[in-house]
Design brief:
alpha+beta, 4-stranded antiparallel β-sheet, 2 helices, 11 strands, 17% helix, globular, binds FE2/S2 (inorganic) cluster
């Protein structure tokens, strides 16, 4: 969810220059290797749960206790895609790393948590998730 310093500076410069931020942000995101994925209307994620439709695009959308967030689906060990389990944790079949429902490592070999991804809502009320390069 946290924006990098570089992302912040680019977006702040775009806004200061009066550019339409959503389209410019998309162009700039592409220029720095990010993708912006339209996950559809925010209302599609109204109920608590794990939304796995975007796993192949590198993230999950999760609503838990009223909190909506996007979590990377890419294992921090060697970049395999992780899978959701019934207890809302995540499992990487490549080497067995496990992560809790917030993406924190509970079992290695991964040592870094699954990143929470930045997102925003566009003018149409759609959830746009910023997926880092790589
Ligand atoms: S790539 Fe996930 S545990 Fe190695």
């Amino acid at each position: 969810m946290e924006m990098s310093r570089k992302q912040f500076l680019i977006r702040a410069a775009a806004m200061a220059a009066g550019f339409p931020c959503a389209s410019l942000a998309g162009d700039l995101a592409a220029a720095i290797g990010e993708r912006q994925v339209n996950a559809g209307p925010v209302g599609n994620f109204a109920a608590d749960g794990l939304y796995e439709d975007f796993r192949d695009q590198g993230f999950f959308v999760i609503r838990h206790g009223g909190r909506l967030f996007a979590l990377s689906a890419i294992c921090t060990h060697r970049k395999c895609k992780v899978s959701g389990a019934h207890d809302r944790s995540f499992y990487c079949k490549c080497h067995g790393s496990m992560f809790d429902p917030d993406g924190k490592v509970t079992e290695g070999p991964a040592r870094r948590d699954l990143p929470v991804l930045h997102y925003f809502t566009n003018a149409n009320g759609e959830l746009i998730v910023v997926v880092p390069a790589g």
